[in-house]
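Milestone M4 deliverable, item 7.
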Amino acid sequence: MKQGGAVIHDMSTDEAKPVTFISFNPDTPQHDPIKEVEKEVYEFTVPWVESPVHELGFSPDGKYMLMMANGESASCSDSKTRFDLGLTVKVNGISNYDSSDPDPRKWFRRGLIKDPQWKGRFPSPFHMTWHPTDSNKVYMVVLNPYRKYSSFSPKSND
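Output delivered:
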């Protein structure tokens, strides 16, 4: 199983405990359980990180969470830990989650935002921001090492 993702905390209580690991990659489970092993100590297992998450954010109304994966991959496999610091990007895209349920364990992946130009190391989506009043519009800065080819890319959340 290959994935990258984020630990999501339950913000409905004062403790704000971590409750789930949400996976980015579309070919992996959406959630991995988090276990409390002692007071304020939690454990979860991610067997392999193929595409690290670069950035995530919520829509202005809180109904959607976008998680962007790009950049250089850094891998680790166990048997006393091995790192592979290759320069390949495994997933250039933005995972789109429905985060409208107050329980983060019930959030679900709606899909993956991709663009045919986002392949290899460059160009890649680099930063994103939501339209301040419209949760159906998100904007991305597309990074390219040659400045004249970098761009600003609006996408619809529909």
